[in-house]
Amino acid sequence: MNKLQTPDRDGGVPLPRTLSAHLVEHLRRRIITGEYLSGQALREQDIEREFGSSRGPVRESLRMLLQGGLVEYAERRGFRVRTYTVADIEHLYDLRASLEGLVIASLAGKPLTAMIADLHASNVRMEACLVANDIGQYFAENQVFHDRIIAETGNRPIAEVMVYVNEVSLPVRYQVLRDALLTRRSLTYHERILSFLQKGDLLAARQETEEHILVNKTAAADIYRA
Questions:
Q1: CA dihedral defined by 25, 167, 207, 123, rounded to 10 degrees?
Q2: Which fold has domain 86-225?
Q3: Measured CA angle at 40 (ends 38, 45), to 5 deg
Q4: What angle (nearest 5°) sits at the alpha carbon of residue 123, between those of residues 122 and 125?
Q5: Is residue 196 within 8 Å of 208, Cβ to Cβ?
Q6: Residues 223, 175 contacting (CB under 8 angstroms)
Q7: Do residues 211 and 88 lie in contact, with contact meaning Cβ atoms separated by under 8 Å?
Q8: Which pTM does this prediction carry?
Q9: pLDDT tens for residues 91-131?
Q10: How far is CA 122 from the centre of its chain?
């Protein structure tokens, strides 16, 4: 199988990666950032030509994206970027709010000192991204914040469901966050959530988390309604 070398997260010895994983990374980024539009055809021949790949890794990468929910497949039409209706968007945001609320509730009785320190560090990095107007890293750090809380719960069923729901919603959330970047809204919510967690007020943290998600519901629906 074709292999590519990419640096590991610590900047140490490069780790071998399959060509399929390399393709998934690039195609996924293009879908999330809107470079590939909702409903756009993903033709295997075009991807092969651009990346110099054979048919096997391209098809495998598209199937991986299909499994993650960012791509759809239909007979005689092939693979396409996932499409969303306004109802889809509204349901996604309602579901995410409910699940994230359950995540906060699952923290009850757990020592939160280490998590709180990590969340504070995430907010600091997010602030730096805001100052640098780096939407890509700002968006990534936004997910780091929420993923850290999910990890602390140790609630595997919720974590597994959240992986899929978050993945499917990423293209929508990227557009909303990009449009709201200058308002600092997401970071402000993160700071409020962290403040309540530091006080041990999980009920207020849960309410703030749910509001954080639902405040963007109308904006997201309007984007796709337009």
A1: 0
A2: Four Helix Bundle (Hemerythrin (Met), subunit A) (1.20.120)
A3: 150
A4: 65
A5: yes
A6: yes
A7: no
A8: 0.82
A9: 999 999 999 999 999 999 999 999 999 999 999 999 999 99
A10: 15
